[in-house]
Specification:
It is a single chain. The longest helix has about 30 residues. Helix 2 crosses helix 3, helix 2 packs across helix 4 and helix 5 packs antiparallel against helix 9. The strands form 2 sheets. The protein has a 7-stranded mixed beta sheet. A two-stranded antiparallel sheet has the order 1-2. The protein has 2 domains: about 70 residues, Winged helix-like DNA-binding domain superfamily/Winged helix DNA-binding domain (Arc Repressor Mutant, subunit A); about 160 residues, Endonuclease Chain A (Endonuclease, Chain A), CATH 3.30.870.10. It has about 250 residues and is of the alpha+beta class.
């Protein structure tokens, strides 16, 4: 019974399914007696089990005869629920940044827009004004490929970061090359990994202290939005931590 609940069945669905497993093909009467479910809800429960693919029926002499699907069908049901959950998770992951911004739009202490490549680099370097030795910053959704001049900036930036003994956690697009991850992990106090799921996004997110930077580096006019608000930063930090906890440490092949 407990295993069925964990698989997503309600108490009533579990009782009816188990009753059909025990008695085999049956009309409503024996199912009611075996499951001890009231007649007022038995049909709704059977309909839900039919929708889940765990019960089927045939009509004989205008009377429905119900039968439980084989127990191994439960595994197929759990797998289908897992796939749906993963799809929902991906959709939520894409929506969360916008939802967080909407939730906090009335509480922003400060929001600043920076334009162009130099603007993005300026807002990125500003983290050194707040971060001290032992502090860390988080990067989410870093692109797999970037123009060469971006890489030149990042390498210079990591040298300075390592010198200041500031930690960095970086999550890249799943298609990022091993060479890029090897390079980033070659700097002290840096842990660079791939995202645990494949999400296409034009933006990357920087989180540190009370600050969040949402950067859109592609397009004719790259831009970055800097939000200074502790609540917003904490919300994005939780968002980042979920992905980080489900990511894998990069191992050189």
């Amino acid at each position: 019974m407990e295993a069925l609940r964990k698989a997503g069945l309600t108490d009533g669905e579990s009782k009816v399914y188990l009753a059909l497993i025990r008695i085999g093909e049956s009309t409503i009467g024996p199912i009611l007696e075996e499951s001890r479910i009231t007649k007022s809800i038995i049909y709704r429960i059977l309909e839900r089990l039919i929708e889940k693919g765990l019960v089927s029926y045939v009509v004989k002499d205008d009377i429905k005869h119900y039968q439980a699907a084989p127990p191994n069908q439960l595994l197929d049901y759990v797998d289908s629920q897992k796939r749906k959950l993963e799809e929902t998770r991906k959709e939520l992951a894409k929506a969360i940044p916008e939802l967080l911004l909407q939730r906090s739009s009335q509480k922003l202490n400060q929001a600043t827009v920076y334009e162009g490549f130099k603007g993005i680099m300026t807002v990125y370097e500003k983290r050194f004004e707040k971060l001290k030795e032992g502090d860390e910053y988080l990067n989410l959704g870093l692109p797999a490929k970037q123009p060469e001049y971006y890489h030149a900036f990042w390498e210079k930036d990591h040298v300075l970061r390592a010198k200041k003994k500031i930690k960095a956690k970086l999550l890249y697009d799943v298609d990022v090359s091993d060479d890029t991850l090897i390079n980033r992990n070659g700097y002290k106090f840096c842990d660079a990994r791939r995202m645990p799921i494949d999400i296409e996004t034009p933006a990357w997110i920087l989180i540190y202290k009370d600050t969040v930077v949402i950067a859109i580096p592609q397009g004719v006019q790259p831009l970055a939005i800097e939000i200074v608000n502790q609540e917003v930063a904490d919300s994005f930090r939780k968002y980042f931590n979920w992905f980080w906890d489900n990511s894998k440490v990069f191992r050189k092949k």
